[in-house]
Amino acid sequence: MTRARAVAPSPRRGGWKREKRRAVSEVVSTLLLIAIVVTLGVFVFSFASGGINSLTGSFTRLMTNQGNSVDEHFVVEQVTFSFSGTTGASVYVRNVGSIASILVSVYIVDQSTGAFVKQIPLTTAQGTVDVGTVLDIPNTVLTFTPVHGQAYSFIVTSNLGNSVTFSSKAT
Hints:
Radius of gyration: 38 Å
Order of helices and strands: HEEEEHEEEE
CATH superfamily of the largest domain: Immunoglobulins
Structural class: alpha+beta
Largest sheet: 5 strands, antiparallel
Number of strands: 8
CATH topology of the largest domain: Immunoglobulin-like
Strand content: 25-35%
Number of domains: 2
Helix content: 25-40%
Low-confidence stretches: none
């Protein structure tokens, strides 16, 4: 059993009308493709250059802070304990670096038991130490109840990530 094929009527004989189709020329299609690629390229470039500028800015800030953290140098010279009135300790910090230091926190650890005692955040006004000066962080700020004869560590930290540890016996 063979099937008969349908044959399309010829346009010359008044059968189907054939619409005239015009193809886009090769030159116009090439120009359209180039325009699309250039537009996408400009978009990708602007997106990437914004990211690179952001990365460059972050790297510059990081290197500046790293340089500043090397220039920053402070030492704890003395700790005095107060057992009456407002109990706690006064910490004296000297800036021996070449830039001002901003101290942000003091951590107190009981060396006798190894227990963490307290963390005291400092405001900018309480923790700014200019070059060559001594800052007194008073016992009214560093309040805790020291025990006679026990050793305490005071870890003083700055906003640039530097820290100094000083140990003292409560006497």
